[in-house]
């Protein structure tokens, strides 16, 4: 049997690893992720080629991350994986936009899988995407049982009360943090541009906070005698 020369195998396998000059570095200089506006002006062929380039880059980065963790070494610039993932998500978004436009033009429908709003066993609402099954719906008893969920009873009602209270408290605390931040900004900079604060904190009544005593500073709370 004829032996395969290593020069034909090694370059292919080494594509799963980063360049050797980056192995002992703490930081690798890379660019930013691909934006939607940049991907929308590319052709379908270019998007197809870019997808495989990003896929190859992601495989390489995940291999290097696993290798560095195995050898307890620092993985240089781990944000590269996030940038590749963001680029791939934006690319999928552009391709989905084009598919929707094509199907709407040809058939009048989006071509996406239909989905509907359902309520799970905990009384929480969500969306269910329809998918293909081997058996029809009326014959697939397992699927029918999984979709026939009830959300009644005292335990579920108590859970929903606690869950809504948790959401309300989180929203209230977030609003209070924004309000306190606006007050501190106005206290340190009385001549701050209010239009900027209105855009940055849309859920805060900036005009009302300007006239409050806490915003002016040296606030003395009232004490009942």
From TrEMBL:
PANTHER family assigned: LARGE RIBOSOMAL SUBUNIT PROTEIN UL29M (PTHR21183:SF18), RIBOSOMAL PROTEIN L47, MITOCHONDRIAL-RELATED (PTHR21183)
The encoding gene: Dwil\GK13453
The protein's name: Large ribosomal subunit protein uL29m
InterPro entries, sorted: MRP-L47_sf, Ribosomal_uL29_mit
GO cellular component terms listed in the entry, alphabetical order: mitochondrial large ribosomal subunit
Record's keyword terms, sorted: Mitochondrion, Ribonucleoprotein, Ribosomal protein
Any one GO molecular-function label of the UniProt entry: structural constituent of ribosome
Predominant location: mitochondrion
UniProt similarity note: Belongs to the universal ribosomal protein uL29 family.
Gene Ontology biological process terms, A to Z: mitochondrial translation
Subcellular location: Mitochondrion
The organism's place on the tree of life at top rank: Eukaryota
